[in-house]
Amino acid sequence: xxxxxxxxxxxxxxxxxxxxxxxxxxxxxxxxxxxxxxxxxxxxxxxxxxxxxxxxxxxxxxxxxxxxxxxxxxxxxxxxxxxxxxxxxxxxxxxxxxxxxxxxxxxxxxxxxxxxxxxxxxxxxxxxxxxxxxxxxxxxxxxxxxxxxxxxxxxxxxxxxxxxxxxxxxxxxxxxxxxxxxxxxxxxxxxxxxxxxxxxxxxxxxxxxxxxxxxxxxxxxxxxxxxxxxxxxxxxxxxxxxxxxxxxxxxxxxxxxxxxxxxxxxxxxxxxxxxxxxxxxxxxxxxxxxx
Length: 291
Description:
Elements (H helix, E strand, L loop, with lengths): L19 E5 L10 H9 L3 H13 L4 H10 L5 H11 L6 H10 L4 E8 H12 L1 H4 L2 E10 L6 E4 L10 H7 L15 E6 L5 H4 L4 E5 L3 H8 L5 E3 L2 H19 L13 H6 L4 H5 L11
Helix pairs in contact: 1-4, 5-11
């Protein structure tokens, strides 16, 4: 559970009254590779079978949940062995750590929203960022049941539907616990960061959308005339957020609606209130089955 951000140091740039809240995809966004693909290709069904299964999702032949269960079911190695492959293969965006430190220093909550498995994502962040910095990141993702001997890798889906984890539904689940406005009466600015079309349900709700340059989310935004900001690394995002902070302070002095306001982002504002975030993204230990 993240610490009370009111105790974190703030830089001179944080004088603006407007609260900014970031939501981000994980695979392909914070890390350049897909954590699941690394496991499946090296220790599970293999790249050819995985690509075939991915195509079945794209064509609608099978659901994401059904295909994912087959992919995870192809793994028969202990968790630690699987993680060793990820540690050698995964590449974090070279500027993400400094960007996240910027978020911590400026009291900007950072939340990961993923269709992956929470125990894997947490272990990856603990390793690449360090446990102290990782603990500042909220994660909402599927849980997992992993046998000690690796004989079973089974997702524990957040939702009983064909997606397994419906990101939009996750947000809606927390709406009753949250308020539109921050505790100090200001309305927060909602930022979403992603790379693929699967991020669209969340991306549409943001005031400011960042799409990794050259990937499918950017292509979709161009094709459908959706406003977005391209990025190559998280350093680009940091520069833009600082510029947007200054723009908003100049135009609104942190009062009323953000200068860049998307009414649809109200849903995210509700789940991002001081009381809602801990209820929305509690971390739970991985469930391990007996061998």
